[in-house]
Task: inverse folding
């Protein structure tokens, strides 16, 4: 029997959001929570079938759905996944239930709207990764801003309005340039199909302009230096769940955009502007790491660390040209691409987990300042173990997923240039420095104050959420093969495509 | 032999207005609902006439001064819908303020008749006739609340500036008549397409006509009346001015500039580019500084007009369809936005300050959501209809090689997004200032909900409306 798995993954959470809003009005928050959790778990179960039914050796789109949508534009409701998008959908579907559990008792104001917003967001995010039609992609991409705007603005911290408006306008400004580029591509090719865009021959000037338009959109989303300033604000002010989704999934959309749009549509421009991308990535990796070092606010520190880690993703994607030019061999470039992809998934898990850890502390002491804590390990031993694990993963400790991605990217960069790899590898030092220094000040040492002394260790709910993430970080660190194999063939195909000039 | 059937809707409406007028005279104040229902029935009958006599092919009648084509049919149907929404949204607002009088509906219907005549005008004189019928009805409507000094002031301002604009338009028409010896639009186009047809006198006439069009649209720098009239007029009248007459303005620009003066496209393109950029820039930037929602929406209208003009600037068939689509979707959005002000207003209270929307989510999550849809649609965020309107216009510009204008347009659209977002943040992130429950009647709640959901439904499935706009032009 034919089951439209992707449509279910998109529309089930959206329908669930409507149901939660209708059911959860008034005082029936408990019902809203349960329905929201049920729907998100069901979505995850459906998403697992995407993995089960995925044949890595089959090149091309899996689970394709294609229905006419807007005749006048020749736009289709076209969905499908390959080795790039499938893991990202799985990540999204995996994190949403955890976010809902994490917000279970914490969210007191309008809980039904909170959970509905996350379900809506989940459906739209999966839509972004599954869309094969550029117009459909853009609709999901922009529509997603609406629930996120509400989430930060309603349940955020003190400066939430500033942060959420900044977030919205930054992303909106970036996206409209992409829209102009997409319209241009549509007029050249006569359709909005992304695969048609991939095959479309384009001159160098066109490619450069399109590449720059995409760059603005995706660089804001990743975010790359110097358009990253919305991220620390948004992260600091967002509620814990919002920060988790923001760091874990929303940022990945920038990376996804580069690998789905920029590289295959404008390969020659990507090649000639790779120096710019590598430069910006290195600035993000090194400079932002220094910035992270001096942060006093834990959420801000993790936000800056996210920017630095996402720098690895963009580095991995764009170093491939130099690697191939240097070695005449695909192996190094493949490593870099795989590294970038693994890094996206792994960073999604680790940064999400770290934000949840901050959330656990914030729920108890209502402060995100590092100086407000100290010696948490004395009162919260179980929690301290989790924090240390995630911190080490963030620093790239072998055996955790954080190591795999960064190691691949550095290895790939090594084929391009020693100094490039050397500079990138400094993050392993700085990453360890700022993360572990924070852990030292927050978790270890003498009990800092009475507040810390009165802390209670994580409850069952929190233990479950953090434990699940800890297991996945470790499993992916020790045995990344299932992930790497799923994306291997798609990336190889992509590499072949990117290396063919369109001129 | 004159063919009357293409004008069946106009004839029916004119007759119906006379009937309503006569009936209204014999009604006591408490029976005024009869006028209301009769007006709606008149609209329904007019729509039926338009449907029955829908012209698939272009028919020109009344010695070349009246045209019926499919585009006119569609534009008129949208105008009926807009006026019907105005009547439904206004009823209880007017009743609560002792303004529930037959004149409102009769003037509204006369205005509609003017719009219909403009839509079907095939001669510059018919166009002018329709324009004056519409304008006079609007001047009177703005001054409709006799006790309000601001309304009287707005009406005066509107009248004086409107008269100047009409004069300008008429002067332009007379110059063109002097050059070509005809007022009929097709003949005009033929004469002007001859070599040397477009001489300096014709160009001067064209410039005056563009000024007249810009005034009726409310494009910068002929926009000064818009904020004052929008703010000063009673909200139902603002709703009226903000919706249906935009269709008339589109018809004016389309019939005169494109059909009549299409060969002079390169001459008026530059003028419209200036108008469009100024409208977008001033409309969007000044709207940010507003605290009154009606005034903010006035500036927002100005910026939307900038986008509609972009469709004319590009000038291709696709771009004109885009302008039509933009106009139609703007009318639906504007009706909903002003409808929300009416919904939240109650006896002795006008919900026209931005502050009045603070904390709406706590008072009524559903209507806060409806307003959210309206605001995001106006900002051009998918999946709402406003997005496709912008998408189409941008597509037209890019196709015509005006990439720079498209980029300027999107940047200014992002600037504009800020003040729409502010309404959303007031509704969702702020605590309520006004705790009173919403008193609007059931019918209005239902209609405005449908209106708001329509923005979403048309945004998810824009195909039908899009095909329609592409087919009729």
Result:
């Amino acid at each position: 029997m034919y089951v439209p798995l992707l449509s279910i993954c998109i529309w089930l959470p959206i329908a669930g959001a409507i149901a939660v809003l209708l059911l959860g009005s008034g005082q029936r928050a408990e019902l809203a929570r349960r329905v929201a959790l049920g729907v998100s778990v069901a979505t995850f179960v459906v998403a697992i079938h995407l993995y089960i039914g995925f044949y890595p050796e089959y090149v091309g789109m899996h689970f394709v759905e294609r229905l006419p949508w807007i005749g006048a534009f020749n736009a289709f409701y076209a969905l499908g996944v390959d080795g790039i998008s499938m893991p990202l959908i799985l990540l999204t579907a995996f994190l949403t239930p955890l976010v809902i559990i994490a917000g279970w008792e914490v969210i007191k104001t309008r809980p039904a709207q909170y959970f509905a917003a996350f379900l809506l967001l989940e459906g739209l995010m999966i839509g972004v990764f599954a869309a094969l039609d550029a117009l459909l992609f853009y609709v999901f991409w922009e529509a997603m801003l609406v629930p996120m705007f509400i989430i930060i603005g309603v349940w955020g911290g003190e400066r939430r309005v500033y942060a959420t408006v900044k977030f919205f306008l930054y992303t909106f400004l970036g996206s409209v340039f992409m829209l102009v580029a997409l319209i241009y591509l549509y007029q050249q090719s006569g359709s909005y199909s992304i695969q048609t865009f991939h095959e479309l021959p384009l001159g160098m000037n066109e490619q450069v302009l399109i590449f720059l338009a995409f760059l603005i959109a995706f660089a804001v989303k990743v975010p790359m230096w110097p358009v990253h300033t919305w991220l620390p604000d948004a992260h600091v002010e967002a509620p814990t769940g919002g920060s988790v989704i923001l760091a874990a999934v929303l940022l990945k959309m920038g990376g996804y955009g580069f690998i789905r749009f920029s590289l295959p549509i404008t390969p020659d421009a990507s090649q000639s502007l790779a120096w710019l991308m590598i430069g910006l990535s290195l600035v993000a990796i090194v400079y932002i790491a220094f910035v992270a070092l001096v942060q006093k606010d834990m959420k801000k520190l993790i936000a800056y660390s996210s920017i630095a880690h996402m720098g690895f993703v963009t580095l991995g994607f764009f170093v491939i040209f130099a690697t191939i030019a240097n070695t005449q061999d695909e192996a190094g470039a493949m490593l870099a691409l795989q590294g970038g992809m693994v890094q996206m998934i792994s960073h999604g898990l680790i940064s999400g987990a770290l934000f949840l850890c901050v959330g656990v502390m914030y729920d108890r002491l209502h402060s995100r300042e590092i100086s407000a804590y100290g010696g948490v390990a004395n009162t919260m031993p179980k929690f301290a173990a989790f924090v240390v694990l995630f911190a080490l993963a963030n620093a790239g400790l072998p055996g955790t997923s954080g190591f795999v991605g960064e190691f691949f990217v550095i290895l790939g960069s090594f084929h391009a240039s020693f100094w490039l790899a050397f500079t990138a590898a400094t993050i392993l030092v700085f990453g360890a420095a700022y993360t572990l220094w924070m852990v030292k000040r927050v978790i270890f040492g003498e009990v800092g104050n009475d507040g810390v002394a009165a802390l209670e260790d994580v409850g069952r709910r929190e233990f479950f959420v953090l434990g699940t993430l800890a297991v996945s970080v470790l499993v992916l660190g020790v045995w990344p093969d299932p992930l790497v194999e799923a994306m291997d063939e798609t990336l190889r195909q992509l590499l072949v495509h990117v290396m063919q000039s369109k001129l | 032999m004159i063919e009357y059937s293409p004008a069946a809707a106009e004839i029916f409406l004119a007759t119906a207005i006379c009937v309503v007028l006569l009936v209204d005279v014999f009604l006591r104040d408490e029976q005024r609902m009869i006028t209301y229902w009769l007006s709606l029935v008149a609209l329904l009958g007019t729509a039926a006439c338009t449907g029955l006599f829908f012209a698939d092919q272009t028919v020109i009648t009344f010695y070349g001064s009246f045209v019926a084509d499919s585009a006119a049919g569609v534009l008129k149907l949208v105008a009926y819908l807009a006026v019907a929404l105005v009547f439904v949204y206004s009823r209880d607002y007017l009743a609560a303020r002792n303004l529930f009088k037959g004149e409102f509906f009769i003037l509204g219907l006369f205005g509609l008749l003017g719009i219909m005549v403009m839509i079907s005008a095939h001669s510059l004189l018919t166009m002018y006739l329709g324009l004056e019928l519409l304008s006079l009805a609007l001047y009177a409507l703005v001054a409709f609340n006799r006790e309000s000094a601001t309304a009287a002031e707005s009406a005066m301002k509107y009248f004086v500036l409107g008269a100047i604009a009409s004069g300008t338009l008429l002067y332009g028409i007379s110059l063109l008549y002097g050059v070509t010896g005809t007022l009929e639009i097709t003949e005009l186009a033929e004469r002007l397409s001859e070599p040397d047809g477009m001489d300096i006198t014709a160009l001067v006439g064209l410039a005056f006509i563009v000024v007249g069009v810009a005034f009726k649209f409310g494009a910068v720098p002929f926009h000064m009346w818009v904020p004052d009239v929008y703010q000063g007029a009673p909200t139902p009248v603002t709703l009226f001015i903000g919706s249906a007459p935009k269709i008339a303005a589109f018809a004016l620009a389309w019939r005169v500039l494109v059909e009549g003066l299409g060969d002079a496209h390169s001459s008026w393109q530059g003028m419209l580019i200036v108008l469009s950029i100024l409208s977008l820039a001033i409309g969007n930037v000044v709207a940010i500084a507003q605290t009154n929602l009606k005034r903010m929406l006035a500036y927002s209208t100005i910026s939307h007009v900038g986008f509609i003009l972009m469709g004319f600037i590009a000038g291709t068939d696709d771009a004109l369809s885009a302008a039509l689509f933009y106009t139609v979707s703007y009318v639906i959005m504007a009706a909903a936005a002003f409808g929300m002000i009416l919904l939240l207003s109650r006896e002795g209270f006008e919900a026209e300050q931005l502050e009045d929307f603070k904390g709406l989510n706590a008072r009524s999550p559903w209507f806060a959501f409806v307003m959210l849809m309206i605001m995001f649609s106006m900002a051009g965020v998918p999946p709402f209809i406003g997005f496709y309107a912008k998408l189409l216009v941008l597509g037209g510009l890019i196709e015509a090689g005006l990439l720079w204008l498209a980029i300027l347009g999107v940047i200014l659209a992002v600037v504009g997004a800020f003040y729409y977002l502010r309404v959303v943040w007031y509704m969702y992130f702020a605590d309520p200032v006004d705790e009173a429950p919403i008193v609007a009647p059931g019918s209005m709640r239902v209609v405005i909900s449908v209106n708001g959901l329509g923005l979403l439904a048309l945004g998810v499935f824009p195909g039908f409306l899009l095909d329609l706009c592409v087919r009729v032009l």
Notes: DSSP finds 20 helices and two strands in chain B. The two ends of chain B are 28 Å apart (CA to CA). Chain B touches chain A at residues 361, 365, 372, 376, 381-383, 387, 391, 394-395, 398-399, 403, 406-407, 410-411, 413-414, 417-418, 421-422, 424-425, 428-429, 461-463, 466-467, 470 (CB under 8 Å). The longest strand of chain B covers residues 59-61.
